[in-house]
Write a structure and sequence with these properties.
alpha/beta, Aspartate Aminotransferase, domain 2, 2 domains, seven-stranded mixed β-sheet, four-stranded antiparallel β-sheet, Aspartate Aminotransferase, domain 1, 43% helix, 368 residues
């Protein structure tokens, strides 16, 4: 018995390379694209361990939990790490980055998350990239959450390592990821004796065995299903139009924020300024008397398919995240999520306004 997901022809090097070109087109980049066979933490760690030379200094911008992870990896590589932390309810500014670089002129590497889905903020990569390039440091950006949802131009913005994953705004699989690598980054990797070689983390292996070899023989068997799914979601974005996909995510974020403000009941946007809010997810601060995890559990009991999750770690009691990305960047997902949260809060004194929230969402969705 044949099965469409099991009885597949081998993925040829030519097909693999064609998917790479589609990723490059999505990013409007002429940099080398390396598609790695795993979740985006694989290229993120690979980039850091390749670029982080022991004894060097790195500026690590922390606007959410992933920035904290990057700092741990950098320290593990023997790097002196300068953490630039800002409150999770805001975004970092280019001026803050400039000041940190001026205070630490020896900085050779800067790491930043573009959009932090976990905390709901997004950072001005274009302006920060200008500051980093003027300083001469290598610039790595985690764009896993932002790709497809907002502009992302690594070449124009001076990003040397731009890591993406398909599982959020692109609406694709989690088991495959990619990184755009600049010529400066390849040189830095090659000069680092501690950069992974002959390793699953190694980007240099991909360059030497795949890119420099003319893309004729893959280093190992590709994750076939994930690669085909990545290709499918790239084609779907192309069919809808990249601008239309980004506009849909922006509208979902604006509608969610307006709906939260109209809902009342003590719910507030976690990210204070709308300009700092990510288009992929809106985070909410729950009323003092409520528990975020309990509210999410009640809401999901009525509809398990809602894109709702409580905050992680210390934020589990106070933050709720509405993940309006990919196929959930639509009016119904936003309205249904807010209605379920309002109903879950319920009870005397809740003062939730479900009709007002629905009206606010509809108004933004219809009028932009």
């Amino acid at each position: 018995m044949t099965h469409p997901f099991l009885d597949l022809s081998p993925l040829t090097p030519a097909h693999f390379a064609a998917i790479e070109r589609q990723v490059a087109a999505l990013l409007s980049t002429e940099q080398d694209i390396v598609i790695m066979q795993g979740e985006a933490l694989l290229p993120l760690e690979g980039c850091i361990r390749s670029a982080a030379r022991p004894g060097s200094t790195a500026l690590n911008v922390i606007t959410g939990p992933y920035g904290q992870t990057f700092g741990n990896w950098l320290r593990d590589c023997g790097v002196t790490v300068v953490d630039l932390s800002v409150p999770f309810h805001t975004a970092v500014t280019a001026e803050q980055v400039r000041e940190a670089l001026a205070a630490h002129p020896e900085t050779a590497f800067v790491s930043l998350v573009h959009a932090e889905a976990a905390t709901g903020n997004t950072n001005p990569v274009a302006e920060i990239g200008e500051a980093v390039r003027a300083h001469g440091a290598l610039f790595m950006v985690d764009a896993v959450a932002s790709v497809g949802a907002e502009p992302l131009l690594p070449d124009a913005w001076g990003v040397d390592l731009c890591v993406i994953g398909a599982q959020k705004a692109m609406g694709g699989p989690a088991g495959v990821s990619a990184v755009a690598v600049s010529a400066r980054a390849w040189q830095r990797f090659a000069e680092n004796p501690q950069a992974p070689r002959r390793s699953y983390l190694s980007l240099l292996d991909w360059k030497e065995r795949w890119i420099d070899g003319g893309r004729k023989a893959l280093p190992h068997a590709p994750a076939q299903l994930e690669m085909l799914a990545l290709e499918a979601c790239l084609e779907r974005i192309g069919s809808e139009g990249q601008d239309a996909v980004m506009e849909r995510h922006a509208r979902a974020a604006a509608a969610t924020r307006a709906g939260v403000l109209a809902l009342g009941g003590g719910f507030e946007p976690y990210v204070h300024a709308a300009a700092d809010a990510a288009p992929v997810a809106t985070t909410l601060r729950v009323p003092e008397r409520a528990d975020a995890s309990e509210l999410v559990a009640k809401a999901l009991a009525t509809d398990p398919g809602l894109p709702l999750i409580a905050g992680g770690g210390a934020l589990a009691k106070e933050m709720i995240r509405i993940n309006h990305y990919g196929p959930d960047a639509n009016q119904d997902a936003v309205s249904s999520s807010l209605a379920a949260l309002g109903a879950a809060l319920g009870g005397p004194g809740a003062e939730v306004h479900l009709d007002a929230a629905r009206g606010a969402v509809s108004a933004v969705w219809q009028n932009g």
